[in-house]
Amino acid sequence: MTWTDDKIGVLAEKIDTLEVKVDAGFARAEVEYARTDQRFKAVGERFDDVDQRVGDLAVGIKQMDAKFDGLQRTLMQIAAGLIGTLIAGILVPIGTVVTLILTQ
Q1: In whole numbers, what is the pLDDT of the chain averaged over residues?
Q2: Torsion over CA of 64, 65, 66 and 67, rounded to 10 degrees?
Q3: How confident is the model at residue 44 (pLDDT cuts 50, 70, 90)?
Q4: Angle at 6 between CA 3 and CA 12, to 5 degrees
Q5: CA distances (Å), origin 87, targets 14, 70, 90
């Protein structure tokens, strides 16, 4: 096979066309890469926001837990006082009846 100037010209045109297509493909790939990179950054920012919100929620839960602990202690004191009052309320009439019976 002999290479003529025409065949070399056609081959050069095909190579030039291929080069243009490859360059266009790389340009599109760079644009898509930039878009994907922006999307990943946006997702990362959202995760940072979610992480911050979870941290705030944990702090709120700890504060609420501390309030419930205080409330529980107060309720235990009230319950102890009520039980003592109930026992005294039962024992006083019994003691009064026993005293009345013994002094009669």
Answers
A1: 91
A2: 50
A3: very high
A4: 85
A5: 106, 26, 5
